[in-house]
Structures are given as C-alpha cells and as structure tokens.
Amino acid sequence: MRLLHLADVHLGASCSAFGALAANRRRAILEAFRSLPDVAVDHRVDAVLIAGDLFDGPAPDGDLLAATRDVLRRFVDACVPVFIVPGNHDAVTLRLNPYREVARAGRVFVQGEAADRRWPLEDEEGRRLAEKHAVYILARPAFGEPVTVETDDGPLHVYGVAYDGAECRDPLSTFRRADAPGVHVALLHASVHDAPHWRGTGNALVTTGDGLNRLDVDYIALGDYHRHRPPEAFGGPPASYPGSFAALDLTEHGARGFVVVEVSPGRPPVVEHVDAGLRPVASLELDVTGCIDDIAVAEAAARSLSRSAIPTLRLVGEPAFPLDADAIATELRQRHGHAHVVDETRYYAAARLDELAERDTVVGHLVRLGRARIAAASDDEDRDVAQMALRVALRAMGAE
Fold this sequence. Notes:
Blueprint: E1 2-6, H1 22-34, H2 36-42, E2 47-51, H3 62-77, E3 82-85, H4 98-102, E4 108-111, H5 124-129, E5 135-138, E6 147-151, E7 154-160, E8 183-192, E9 205-207, H6 209-212, E10 219-223, E11 239-240, E12 257-262, E13 270-275, E14 281-287, H7 294-304, E15 310-316, H8 325-336, E16 340-343, H9 350-357, H10 362-375, H11 380-396
Parallel strand pairs: 1-2, 2-3, 3-5, 4-5, 7-8, 8-9, 8-10, 10-11, 14-15, 15-16
Antiparallel strand pairs: 1-12, 6-7, 12-13
C-alpha cells in the first residue's frame, strides 16, 4: 500500500523572515499544496495522511479555507481518501477551530466531538456513508476504533488522536489494535524526545521512542518536527517525520516536502522523501580571509550558491578590511531576492590593525582605544560588543 504523508504545511504563515519575498513565499506554498491531488494520482497512492498543523493558526482567512476545501474535494474526486489530525497550531481545543470550517465541505467526516458534529462518524449514518471517497478529521483526544476504508490494495485502518492534555494526558496508552486484516497506521502530531532535559510545550503531545513502541501498527505517521526523519532514525518504531512542507523561515535549510511510504503488514515501511518544489533555503559558511572588500565577499558567496536558492550566509575568518554584513546582504539580494548574513569573523585582521595602531592619526588613536577596550572586556558578550564598536567606528571613518 502506498501512502502520501505530509505535515506542518502551516497554511497562512506570515513567512516574515523572507522579507520582500514573504508574499511570494505564501503564494508559492499554497500553490504547491494545491498541486497535491495531482501528485497523489501520479504516485498512485491509496490514501493521504496529514499529521497536524495544516494551518498556521486557528483562524485562517476565508480565501485560504476555500482553497483548502477545494483541494480536499479534488482528493475525493480522485478517489483518494484523506486522513487529518490537528496539530498544536490548529488544535481543536482552541476557541477558534479551522477544522469546523473545513468540515463544511462535502464528504468530510469527523471522528470526535471537539469538531463540527454534522458528519459524526460515531452515528450509524456516518458509518454507512464513510467510504474511500471522503476526508476524515480525527479529532478525539484518545485512541478508539480506527477508521477503515477499502483501497485498491486492501483494507486500511487509521487510528488518530487530537491531543488535549486536559482530557487525556497519555493518549498512547489508550491504543488498542483492531483484530482485522490489512494495513494499520497511527496518525499523530507529537514531539518525540529521548533527552531527559527536554521539556515540551503545554499544548503538544510529548513522547519517546519507547512510547511509540506501544503502538502495534505497520506505520506511524508523525508531524511536529520540521526536519525529515526516516524510520531508521527511530531505531525501532516504524515511524517517520516528513518535515515541514516548505521552509517557513531561514533556519529551515535544504529540501522540504512530503514522503511517499510503501507499507506492508509485518514489514518495515519504505519511505521516500519528495521535494515539494519550492525554492530552498541554502546555508553557506564562507571564510572571508583573503577577500579585499565587501563586493569580493558577495561575489565569492554567489559563486557557491544556486540562483534558485534563498541564501543564509555565515561569514568566518579574518577580514583585512572593516567588513559590512549589511552591504554584503544588499549585494546578494539583487541576485536572490532575499539574503540573511551572519558575521562571525574576527573583527579585523590582526596585521592590519597593528599597522593602523602605529599611526599618529585619529584612526590610529581609535584603534589603540578600541583594542584596550577589547582587552578589558569582562566576558565574551562584552568583548563582542567592543569588537563590533571598533569595526563600525573604523568603517564610519573610511579606514581601509
């Protein structure tokens, strides 16, 4: 059985980290999401699993909700059932609940009482109508009977929870596998941690690899982490994070998208990560030692970056000039539309400062004072401030 598993689409996110590209980024994410019904058909998947945070917040605007309902209708028209659990950004426990609006579309069934009850799976009419030509929102705070659909590759049983700590602190302990043939899948928005010092947020389900081992299923479709983690990363449970659907800020480097999973009863799942096709964020560390000025640094960075990427540049080394990170970012923005530059260089080449400090000039006096201030710094933070102050002052005075 082939399943398309995605999570953390965050429709409606501001994408403010992308600066002037923010509006284009939001449109590109929505268009990539709109393409998914065709992608599902091309990959011949039996079902789609959305593991939370489909929306970035509880109150997406009307246009976004209408677009989402249209995408879901197209899945239904293509005979591809869709299973959704809420996340922590779009939780059904919030006063505003976007899934009530999603459930206004035809052929949408809700499991649980936290969402709109016009199509509850708990009643006989809902059970009779439920079939593979539908969307299922799994909104109960604990596991119960799975939703079962017949696919071209056999029965699919999907178990899901919408985390609500006030109702059920440990929903994984409520899991009971149905005695039925076919593929069994658990759908969760959860943070899986094994570090004892880590503490999760109050509105998110937190578990461990041992916790996942409680789930007697063939595949665990996870959401929450924004970096892809294949099953082998868990060392036991047949679980996977697809990662965020698209980079939502400049820290999310590399390919982003979803996974296509081949699942067979009693066998490890086979997971393939598929790029959503949006411009990636590229991270580059550049040693500026030997560059003669800001333009040379920008040119060196551009040679190492694809024009299709959105760059985040970390500068290291010892420049022989008063480096201006803002000027370098301005140069890169002309090529890439947006750029983020972090300056971690040693503030100025030591040999160059030695030369300036020996001059009987205002610049020489400035260097001597600045070096004394750096030497007297009480800690690393104070030292960084003093180094930056000297660099800014030299640049303002046109020191070369």
